[in-house]
């Protein structure tokens, strides 16, 4: 888990907790916005079989291409 995501989610959780402690709803809104930003800025890319830069075509692509011929 990246450090940036963990930091942003802990800040968001702290803001939501503070909104209950101080009875200020805007702090919870800030926390939800921070959580929203953390969720959409986290990049956990998964490499596909075709992106491996191999010379050989993957077996799944060969099966898909040869299915309806």
Structural class by secondary-structure content = mainly alpha
Cα-to-Cα separation, first versus last residue: 44 Å
Are there runs of 5+ residues with pLDDT below 50, and where? none
Strand content: under 5%
Mean pLDDT: 77
**Would you report the number of β strands?**
0
Which outline best applies? rod-shaped
* Biggest sheet record: none
The run of helices and strands is: HHH
Helix count from the secondary structure assignment: 3
- Helix content percent band: 55-70%
The radius of gyration computed from the alpha-carbon positions, rounded to a whole number of angstroms, is: 22 Å
What does this molecule look like?
It is a single chain. With 69 residues, this protein is an all-alpha fold. It has a domain at 1-44. Helix content is 64%, strand content 0%. The chain has three helices and no strands. The chain has helices spanning 3-22, 25-41, 59-65. Helix 1 runs antiparallel to helix 2. The model has no long low-confidence stretch (mean pLDDT 77).
What structural keywords apply?
69 residues
Reconstruct the topology from this structure:
Blueprint: H1 3-22, H2 25-41, H3 59-65
A few lines on this structure:
With 69 residues, this protein is mainly alpha-helical.
